Amino acid sequence: MPRLESVLFRHMDAQIETPARTRGVVERAGRFLGLTGWAVDPSHPGRPAEIEVLAGETVIATCRTSLPRPDLGLGEAAAAAGFRLPRTAFQTAVARAQRGKGGVLSLRLAGTGEALHAAVALPSLDELVDAGGDDPPSPVAEPAAAAASPPPVPPPAGVPAPPAASSRPLPTAEPVPPAASSEQPPAGVPASSAMPPPATESVPSVAPPVAPPVALPPSPPSAEAAARDLPAALASLRQLATTLPAATAPPRQAGFIEAFGATTGGPLWLFGWMRPTAGHHFPCRIGEETLHPAGMAIAWQARPDLPEGGVAFTAAVDTAWRPDSETPRPQLLFGPDGADRLECLDTSQWLDEPACATRLAAAAAKLSGRFLRPLQRLAAATNAWAPDGPETAALGLKAHVERLVVVPGFGALVAGWALSPQQPMQPRLLRLGERVLPVLPGSITRTARRDLLENAGGSARLAASAGFTAVFAGPLAPEDAGEAVLKLVTEGGIGCNHRVAPAQLRLLGHSAEIEELLTFYPALEREAWFPDLARAIGAGLRRAAARATLVLLHPAPAAILATIGADRSDAALLLADLALLADRRPDLPPIVLLLGSGETRATALAGFGELQEQVAARGSLFELPDPAQALHALPTVLDALGAERFIFLGPGAFPDAAGWDALLDVLAAPGPAPFSLTLRSGPLDAAAAAGTACFAWRRAECLGWLATQPVPVGGLASGLPALPPNRAAPPPGAGADPGRLVPVGRLARAVNALLFAPETPHG
């Protein structure tokens, strides 16, 4: 006997009992795992061995050894002595033709007829070959295999081995009810818990009492129904989970949760491995300290590193549970008696939405099962990161966003078009940067787009409703206005993603004016969600108005605060008036200019330099994001100056000589009530009556009043807010002339009316 053959037989004798001249061994076998082992052709020990699988006398599959087996100690033969025949290798026409014929499986070296020894009981061909469906059979007991099988292969690194209870008999996925009774407990409830039929009594003279009907828990949806409408099936299973009895048996380890995450408006997603003792869609409970009812559906993948009966899975779980800690560690209980448990590992991760989408996309290529396609559709419909599937192009789905305006604190308004020749398609989710916003119910409006008639394949009916506007609500911050992706979904659950071009995205208050929102909804102020929009606009104005950037500071107890507006002519005229005042009143207090960053800034800086040469007291400069809101920057400006009394000039206010004298007199000895000059006849009567265009007051009283006032759209031109009614009247002949104030628009007036309403509800 050659030296290699002697080594080979010595190794086999040390490992297992084998016939004297066995050339290989089937070491593991199972309906999910397939067949694994090793083989060597002694005639060509350095080459891969050819193996044939037979059912009876018919060859149904072949393979070639290719896996290294250094543990065998066979020298050069070990380099490629291992083999693995996965379950998929048996899904052939030849193998299917042998189903039901009772042929016993065996393996042999091709060309020699020498059999490979089976160290474990081999599954039947019927168990390995699918009958035509997509789901694997649910694991059941294999007594013969269990008796002869070696200890199970350890699970993946970091995954604890399951307990010995894994060999217990397991029920099928969907048990067939006995013919004797048509009312069986739902799947997942032990048959022993079902109510027995009432006993009958042979007492002819007394009718037995009629028991009231017993309401049985709802039955779980069938696999076919669940595959057709998975969201509805998961909701039904979640409801069914509320009726499941509490587990009385100690939990049995049935697998592990390796990662989990959720998507906005979608289910919880789980990734890991398990023994699907309850089938592939079932009620369950999930949580940490408190368990919540849930419905779960899985797609699966056979993996050689898992114990027999175990599969890798990706699952969608409909549940109210979401993590409430930084390191969540949920567990999930399921199974006929609710005692099969999935728990987390120390390495289990909570995935954010992008990571969850990436893992779903990566897993989909390897998964199988009846629910794979429904799970992909569910992911596409609820995940703005999920890539478009092949159905998107096949169905001719097209979409485009033409305008998108972000409203900080509220969400976004979107206008565009969508074409779906076969199924209606609606906007569903909007991703902005890392934020995902759901569409606001009732906000979608469809419009005719006859310019898209050619894109719609000449269908006038399709073009008649191709345009859309929609609102996506969520607490967006200005910095969230990043990359945008719009998710649209058909009624069949097929998703279509559209990446919004940067040129179509605008930010309210920065690159979009409030009146532009009327181009989305012409009757916007009548929409049900308008109050929330108005309050978000008001909150954004308050945040912006409070900002004042210090340019030059000379603290002073009293000061003249003059606002330089956006009109260049008004800016030049105000600076000229201040220069004349300085000539007439050399004892002027410091002049503080409140200027914007627009084209009047250069004019203001030049005029300020000249005033500094005329006025003994050194002035200061502040830059405002919007000079029209200068009134609401007073807290910041006065705190920086340390001023306790002041004169305020809004943009477009020009006191006459008598008005200046009256203001300066009050500044010298101000009282608790404000003193204001009335603007003479001008285009904005409301602004003239408000008194905030030109007044003198004390800091403490002014800031106390101002803290209670909303910030109006349009600033001083809106005529809001009005000074307290106890303000002092100016002396005869004292007043101010108005500048070029721009009236506020219709939507701005509607927002202001809501913000300044006496009892506006805030919520």
TrEMBL record:
Organism per entry: Siccirubricoccus deserti
Protein name listed in UniProt: Uncharacterized protein
Region (Disordered) location: 127-226
Biased segments, Pro residues type: 149-163, 206-221
